[in-house]
Amino acid sequence: MIQVFQIVILGLALGGVYALMSSGMTLIFGVMRIVNLAHSAFIVMAAYLAFWLFKAINLDPTLSMAITMPVMFLIGMAYYRILFASRADNPRFVDITVLITFATGLIIEGGLAFIFTGIYRTTTPEYAKTSYTFGPFFIPQSQLYALIISIVLIVGLWLFLRYTRIGNAIRATMQNRNAAQVVGVNVRWISTLSFGIGLAMAGAAGSLLSFVFTFYPAKHVAWIGMILCLVVLGGMGSLVGALVSSFLLATAASFVSFYLGATWAPITFYLALFLILLFRPQGLFGKKVEG
Amino acid sequence: MSDISPVNSNEHGAMIKTEKNSPLKPFIIPVLISMLFVVWKYVLSANGILKSPPWMEQWGEAMLILGLGLWFLFLLTPYITRFSKVNKWVKGGLPLLILAVFLVIPLIQIKTGTLNYWLYMLTICFMYIIWSSSWNIIGGYAGYISLGHTVFIAIGAYFAGMIFVFWRISPFITAPVAGIVAMVSGLLFGLIALRTRGSTFIISTIALVLLVAEILDNWKLTGGVNGLAMPMISLEGEIAKIPFYYYMLVIMVLCVLMTYFIQHSKFGLGLRAISQDEIKAEVAGIPTRQYKILAFGLSGMFIGMSGAIYGYSLTYLRPSIFLTVAIGTGIVLNTILGGKGTVSGPVIGAAIMLAVNEFVVSKLGATELNIVVTGLILMLVLLFFPEGIVGSLRNKGTLPTFLDWD
Q1: pLDDT in tens, B135-171
Q2: Is the pLDDT of residue B115 over 80?
């Protein structure tokens, strides 16, 4: 029984980072209907930025979020403005954006591999090596910090969407793009802003996972599968859904990796993604989305 | 099934009947004899039922290729005669000339032994053409973007490879079966995944690749991450590539012919209607669901065959060779660059992209930058050139006749 609780604890601890990774993607899909396949590549990019800051000026990864988040925010706004803003009305928009974002992912992957080589990297602050124990249980210190910061950021994002004027505009755009435009929302600006916010979340996730996981440039393909799974299970565009499905699947994966071996854990995600698409394409909390 | 396979219906059915007048009729007996040798060497002798004489050990493989080649040619004759009958010589002249050159190149290699690199590159080129031409059926005509067609390569390669390792039946024999297996798995996957459309469908194909890669990575029977080693082909280095070359060439020709006939059938018309507006197509009486699933299965078939041959030429299978989303994207890029929904587009696109890749590798040497170049070209093509080479030229009305295979 103790063992089961321990597995649940470790699963939940990872769930926080997963939720942060998928929150940006679900926001971007919700507002713009863009399946951002480059999301995990941007996360890896942010992780490398955090890694570089850690190596160069010994900046703690939790503090380097103060740099990665604004940087990724600006990159996100520029990326959307340059590539997508003028194409949002194209009927073939969805198919094209999926391929374009994946191409972006490839470019980032190749560029990172060129600059940092394909060696497995991780940042090693002091707290990455120890863990807290309480009674029979333990939790790695790094994962606890990552969990707390992730939850703070996600709750912050939720409050922002809920109680600010811009947040309301973003939610209105999510619900109905045309109607939002009719009532005076500058949809184009809101879309650009949301893309920036989405990538800022990716930046935060990158900083956090730089000390939770090891990463290398090609890692983004494995992560995009996982993030897609979380986002689709939660319902594309639903922040609460992403949070719930992250904790659910992280726990499930930690059970699988305990009983079947760590190499089977990714299969949990991909199989889950497949089954969800099969039986409930709109996810747990999503509305039925066309296309 | 009969109502959803219009490829074989009416007009084309009539064509197949002209087989009686085949100019290759005298070849039937040599074909049968060579097939007999093949069965003797690879099935009976390999399992120790009947001993084969030493000369067969040396020439069995060559016999096999000769036999299969003639056999395929025999099957193809009705189509070849049709090409000439409808006076397509002007249109098909250059492609047929190039095809003739392709047929001759290995003979030069046997004489001089200097064309090994070219044989290898052309084999890869044929393979890319098979992949993108096949993808074109579902992605180009029906408009369903699949990033998961690498799964069919893996299915074909592993199917033929496992049979080769366990029962010693050469992949040259099992390749068509591998194609059928890939097609059936394509139909099954299509049955499930084609209920979704747009971005959801693309996601499900990505999930398929990642899922199959993980399963093969962890499955003890297929060797897992360590891979599956196969015996090498029992030919000398100078001629060892020729069987693969011819086999790939034949599959390529069949594959391109298939897209041609799909383009000119009711089936192809239905697929194009689906890509324009699926709901209207459904209302117009097109069985959209069956058409889509059949298109997905057909697009898997030749990829599976080529996978079996490719796996044998590698002699070593590992999931990470085929099953990455990047390779799947490469197939998509080849097709879109050439022009999706056209017969010649995927052929041109694959050849060009292979040349570009070779150039980048030889100039820069770094695989990382290779990925960047692939990504950049894909992005630029999608942004500024979505119709592809053939499509854009046709829109301008300046498509040269030798590229107009429709």
Answers
A1: 999 988 988 888 889 999 999 999 998 898 888 888 8
A2: no
pLDDT in tens, B309-365: 998 888 888 888 888 887 888 899 899 988 888 888 888 888 888 888 887 777 766
Residue range A187-207: mean pLDDT, rounded: 92
Cβ contacts from A onto B, under 8 A = 131
DSSP B199-210: HHHHHHHHHHHH
- Per CB-CB distance under 8 Å, the chain B contacts of A257 are none
User: What mean pLDDT is predicted for residues B110-131?
Assistant: 83
Nearest CA in chain B to A92: B198
Tell me if B346 is assigned to some domain.
no
Q: Does B294 share its domain with B266?
A: yes
Sequence spans of domains, chain A = 2-217
Nearest by CB to B196, from A102, A221, A281: name it.
A281
Q: How far is CA A184 from the centre of its chain?
A: 30
Same domain, B243 and B296: yes
| pTM beyond 0.90, yes or no | no
Place of tokens 């049979």: B163
The secondary structure of residue A215, as a DSSP letter, is: B
Question: Who contacts A5 (Cβ-Cβ below 8 Å, separation ≥6)?
Answer: A137
Cite the DSSP H helix spans in chain A. Answer: 2-32, 39-57, 61-79, 93-116, 141-163, 165-175, 177-182, 187-212, 219-234, 239-259, 265-279
User: C-alpha angle with apex B74: B69 to B79, nearest 5 degrees?
Assistant: 115
Overall average pLDDT of the B95-106 stretch: 77
CB contact under 8 A, B371 and A224: no
Closest Cα in chain B, distance from residue A86 (Å): 11
| Same domain (yes/no): B147, B216 | yes
Q: Which amino acid is at A276?
A: I
The answer to whether A83 faces chain B, any CB pair under 8 Å, is yes
With beta carbons under 8 A apart, name residues in chain B contacting A273. 203-204, 207
Q: Do B135 and B31 fall within a single domain?
A: no
Q: Is B146 on the interface with A (CB under 8 A)?
A: no
Considering only CB atoms, B372 lies closest to which of A107, A118, A264, namely A107
Q: How many domains does chain B have?
A: 2
